[in-house]
Amino acid sequence: MSAVWQRSRRNVLLAGGGAVVAVVLVAAGTAVLITRNNEQTSAQDGQASAEAVAEWWTDSHEDVSNLRAALHDSEQALRLQDNDGLQLACQQLHDTAGVRVPAHLPTPDPELTSELQAAAQDAHDAAHMCLAAVAGSMNSYGGEFDADMDQADRHLAAAQEIIDRSVTTNASASAQR
User: Fold this and answer.
1) Would 12 be classed as within a structural domain?
2) What residues form the membrane-spanning segments (predicted)?
3) Which of 101, 111, 119, 141 is the S-S candidate for 155 at Cβ 3.0 to 4.6 Å?
């Protein structure tokens, strides 16, 4: 009886072990399929997002570029101590940051939207300080103005990197089709 019992026990253990191996193999296969599907879906989502950003950029390029130009023109007029040029540049900065760029938000990319919102807000704040100073305000906005201009420029540069990456990805995908 003991030999029969040992064989039965061994057969049960082998069958149980085989079942465990089968379950592990099925689980591993399923995980591989899910991972591949997620990678394909992620790549497709990334491509769709890049296409959407590229299309968005076509419509908004001029206003975002004008914001960068207004930042530059304001800084240059300030360096040259050109009061009339500063007033004109700060008005352009105000209108571009406060109206034109926000009209293109949100973008198809949440990170891009955040960077552009931050750039527009900082530039708009700086424009108000600049316009107040040009109008003769006795407040000293030197440190705040410089900080807001710097932050606006940094956020705009980060936004441009996202745009460039999306446009490049979209162009590469279009070339492969």
Assistant:
1) no
2) 12-34
3) 119
